[in-house]
Amino acid sequence: MGDETAPRVTSASCGRLEAGERTFKDAKLFPGGAREWDWNETGTRHEPGVGPADVEELLEHGATTVVPGTGFYGKLRVRGETLDALKERGVAARALPTEEAVAAYNELREKGPMGALIHSTC
């Protein structure tokens, strides 16, 4: 479990996200690092949306707050069961459209172990 600060998002535009000196289409951001978020790993689709398995890696890295981004137009859903599972584990969560998710993530990453799933398109 890491206790380093999660990387800052320096740019977010449709189809492109820059964080921690790297460029992504969709990203998993967590204390101490970031990587491409490959939806195929957990079978994520816009509907039903982000599932508990999608956020597990963030928690393994020590995130105590998680911001799932829902895309620039809010097309990506976040399952109620995902938010419930986070709440049960004492993890604060806020699902927000990409621009708001990036702003919240960048602000909160300075205050404690932070994780985010950022979808850079729809």
Provide an overview of this structure.
It holds the Pfam family DUF498. It is found in: Cytoplasm. One of its GO terms (cellular component) is cytoplasm. The chain is α/β, with parallel strands linked by helices and 122 residues long. The chain has a single domain (9-119), classed as Hypothetical Protein Mth938, Chain: A (3-Layer(aba) Sandwich). Helix content is 24%, strand content 27%. The chain has three helices and eight strands; from the N terminus they run βββββαβαβαβ. It has helices at 52-60, 80-88, 98-108, and strands at 9-13, 16-19, 22-24, 26-30, 33-36, 65-68, 92-93, 114-119. The protein has a five-stranded mixed β-sheet with strand order 5-4-8-6-7, sandwiched between helices. The protein has a three-stranded antiparallel β-sheet with strand order 1-2-3, covered by helices on one side. The longest helix is centred in the C-terminal third of the chain and has 11 residues, at 98-108. It is globular and about 30 Å long. It starts with 8 loop residues before the first strand and ends with a strand. 39% of the residues are buried. The mean pLDDT is 95.
Biggest sheet record: 5 strands, mixed
CATH class: Alpha Beta
SS strand fraction? 25-35%
Low-pLDDT residue spans: none
Count of β-strands: 8
* Elements, N to C (H/E): EEEEEHEHEHE
Helicity level: 10-25%
Subcellular location: Cytoplasm
Keywords: Cytoplasm
Main location: cytoplasm
GO cellular component, one term: cytoplasm
